[in-house]
UniProtKB/TrEMBL annotation:
GO biological process terms held by the UniProt record: guanosine tetraphosphate metabolic process
A Pfam family: HD_4
Record SUPFAM superfamilies: ACT-like, HD-domain/PDEase-like, Nucleotidyltransferase, TGS-like
SMART domains listed in its UniProt record: HDc (SM00471), RelA_SpoT (SM00954)
Annotated function: In eubacteria ppGpp (guanosine 3'-diphosphate 5'-diphosphate) is a mediator of the stringent response that coordinates a variety of cellular activities in response to changes in nutritional abundance.
Annotated Gene Ontology cellular component terms: plasma membrane
Name of the protein this chain belongs to: RelA/SpoT family protein
């Protein structure tokens, strides 16, 4: 590097340092500034010879993370220092003792937590990512700041991922959408959650992201004009009440618009609430509630509210600590608009989450349910029975869930995730009550255990000493806590049954003159097509493998010669099949990896990709490579937890082989419509129609067509042609 460039970097460093102190959300004391200065100097020295992929000096990464921690999340000086030092122990010659000696125990503990997350044991067979997440979450209880700095670190990595290879981008973005965005949401960092989600979409589905971003920019002026019109109507009344307030428009994030488009199967233009209007008012704490409802009544005097869409999180805040009043009203031009009413304090908590809570924390108020959540999480963490991947799944259940509020028979208020059942409620109150649940009463009526609770329900649990969890309970429980407790209870029961089964099996085999040794055990496992000896013993104990089946085993064992023949007779149909595949595959090949290797694969049933779709290969344990679409519902989980098993894949020359696709059609029923649709399909030489089904209901029709096509282009053309038919409203591929 030239002298001038080095000088330039030094200047930039000095500027960044000043900025860091200036943007801090907290007021920094002299001691705080001293601590941050020495952390800054140490980080600069430790990383002096390192550069990032983009060529930039590495030190700018810890500084950027510290700036996010200081301003966007609003943490204290200790956290800012820890953020500056977060990569020092992992990447340089300094060790943890040095950090503790220079900065004290707390900073060292946070840096240690962040370093632990970075180190993973590569030798383990379980998903490395999942194991990594579990380690990371174990640090939650030591010091929640570890996770918050980790989220800031991930945010900066996502912001600067352009120069990375495509597969790395895909892996990191999937991981972000799968675990970091939900975590940020749960800790109450809504702004960061939205940015992480948008960046995640940018790297997992770049075309979709660019398209929506472009459209949002186009509609920006229109949106500003709309908010102007909305404000005009209520401004005079609000001013007459002497309220100090500001009205802002907030566009919905790209990710949430995309989620809405998928969930409701609509185009960008059909998504109505693309932005929300926020009214933020100044108020002393004791008058907050009064002013919120006053503003509510002013807004609803001018605009008609949607009665089903009132959300009152002021009377009972979300467990993330979020407080606000949300109403949806019919705004100008006949459009539904979401209006969020918050005081300045509520707004700060919504944006800074955790940190703002502590700033405003009064002695009698709690910290927004965070402690409660951490304690519950600790239970899941301590359940070592559960595999890492299962753990991450269970943990996710606790993150994104929307909330409902239910009452106990005594009138105590409990918050549960939306979709929770009576059984979840039982486990929420106490594990023992959950384990012995016999039934549940909702609002005084007996309901099934699977009954979904609604906000405002009063729930009573009926217990019995003799009740215990059964496998069916997993179908009724939705919360991570309930599911992990049920699973570990079933595991214990399975072990007990298996122990009994082992004794029964040895006795039964003895009467058939067979010794239960390792060789026999292996034969039994193969014969009964079970995975492990534990499964085998369990099935014997549970009576699934009974005497007649064991006699069949004995016969097959003594008659190995005949069974060898039977297998020979069953075999021939296989090769024929393979040859048939080979003939068509040559023309329609899926290739894997950089070298475009041709490998055997199977199509995944969950998303049924066809040639031309964007796909990836996933190496399964028993079934070879399975092909999934990149927007398959399971893609995020696979790419996040098992990125080392993902294989890049693409189609080449899709001209010969045929694939099945299902189209649904809806529109206004007119005479001869079915005839028109079938005509369009049969006029296309490359399409074979397998089945057609139409239903008409009071002038509206829906239809389902199964066609066989050679590739995606032909299918897209067909969809376009069907859309042109008069009366057709929507054509979608399932």
């Amino acid at each position: 590097m030239t002298e001038a460039a080095i000088e330039e970097e030094k200047k930039e460093l000095a500027k960044q340092y000043k900025q860091l102190l200036k943007i801090s959300y907290r007021t920094l004391t002299k001691e705080d500034k001293k601590l941050i200065r020495s952390a800054f100097d140490l980080a600069v020295d430790a990383h002096k010879d390192q550069r990032r992929k983009s060529g930039e000096a590495y030190i700018f990464h810890p500084i950027a993370v510290a700036k996010i921690v200081a301003s966007e999340i609003g943490l204290d000086a200790t956290s800012i220092a820890a953020a500056l030092l977060h990569d020092v122990v992992e990447d340089t010659d300094y060790n943890l003792d040095d950090i503790e000696r220079m900065f004290g125990v707390v900073v060292a503990r946070i840096v240690d937590g962040l370093t632990k997350i970075a180190h993973i044991n590569m030798a383990e067979d379980v998903s490395m990512q999942a194991e990594n997440f579990r380690k990371m979450l174990l640090t939650l209880n030591e010091d929640i700041r570890v996770i918050i700095i980790k989220i800031a670190d991930r945010l900066h990595n996502m912001q600067t991922m352009e120069s990375m290879p495509r597969d790395k981008q895909q892996k990191i973005a999937s991981e972000t959408l799968y675990i970091y965005a939900p975590l940020a949401h749960r800790i109450g960092l809504y702004n960061i959650k939205s940015e992480l989600e948008d960046l995640g979409l940018k790297f997992t589905e770049p075309e979709v992201y660019a398209d929506i971003l472009g459209r949002i920019k186009e509609s920006k002026e229109e949106q500003d004009a709309y908010i102007e019109a909305f404000t005009k109507v209520i401004k005079n009344t609000l001013d007459a009440e002497n309220l100090e307030y500001e009205i802002k428009g907030r566009p919905k994030s790209i990710f949430s618009i995309r989620r809405k488009m998928l969930a409701q199967n609509v185009s960008f233009d059909e998504v109505y609430d693309k932005f929300a209007v926020r009214i933020i008012y100044k108020s002393a704490p004791e008058n907050e509630k009064f002013f919120a409802w006053k503003i509510y009544s002013i807004v609803t005097d001018h605009f008609r509210p949607n009665p089903i869409r009132l959300r009152d999180w002021i009377s009972s805040p979300k467990s993330t600590g979020y407080e606000a009043l949300h109403i949806t009203v019919m705004g100008p031009k006949g459009r539904w608009v979401e209006v969020q009413i918050r005081s300045e304090r509520m707004n700060e908590i919504a944006e800074k989450g955790f940190a703002a809570h502590y700033k405003y924390k009064n002695k009698e108020k709690d910290d927004g349910g965070l402690e409660n959540w951490l304690n519950k999480l600790q239970e899941t963490l301590e359940n070592s029975e559960i595999s890492a991947v299962d753990f991450v799944e269970e943990f996710k259940l606790n993150l994104y869930a929307k909330e409902i509020f239910v009452f106990s028979p005594k009138g105590d208020l409990y918050s549960l995730p939306k979709g929770a059942t009576g059984l979840d409620f039982a486990f929420h109150i106490h594990t023992e009550i959950g384990m012995h649940t016999r039934g549940t009463k909702v609002n005084g009526k007996l309901v099934p255990l699977s009954h979904e609770l609604k906000s405002g329900d009063q729930v009573e649990v009926i217990t019995s000493e003799s009740s215990k969890p059964t496998a069916n309970w997993l179908n009724y429980a939705t919360t991570g806590r309930a599911r992990s407790k049920i699973k570990s209870s079933l595991k214990d029961e399975k072990k007990q049954l298996a122990e009994e089964g082992k004794i029964i099996l040895a006795r039964k085999l003895k009467s058939l003159k067979i010794n239960l040794d390792e060789h026999t055990l292996n034969q039994l496992v193969v014969f009964f097509k079970v995975k492990t000896s534990l499964d085998l013993y369990y099935r014997v104990g549970a009576g699934i493998i009974d005497n007649p089946k064991l006699k069949d085993f004995a016969a097959s064992r003594s008659n190995a010669f005949i069974s060898f023949f039977k297998n020979r007779i069953r075999k021939p149909e296989k090769p024929e099949d393979v040859n048939k595949e080979e003939i068509t595959e040559k023309f329609d090949q899926l290739v894997f990896g950089k070298n475009e290797d041709k490998l055997d694969y199977k199509i995944a049933n969950c998303c049924n990709p066809i040639p031309g779709d964007n796909v990836f290969g996933f190496v399964t344990v028993n079934e070879g490579i399975k092909i999934h679409k990149t927007n398959c519902p399971n893609a995020l989980q696979l790419q996040s937890n098992y990125s080392y098993r993902i294989m890049p894949a693409k189609w080449i020359d899709s001209t010969q082989r045929e694939f099945k696709a299902v189209l649904t059609i809806s529109g206004i029923d007119t005479i001869g419509l079915v005839n028109e649709v079938t005509k369009v399909i049969s006029n296309n030489l490359h399409i074979d129609m397998k089945s057609v089904h139409f239903d008409s209901n009071d002038g509206v029709f829906t239809g389902k067509i199964v066609v066989v096509v050679k590739n995606k282009t032909i299918l897209n053309n067909l969809v376009e042609n069907i859309k042109k038919i008069n009366g057709i409203d929507k054509v979608t591929r399932i």
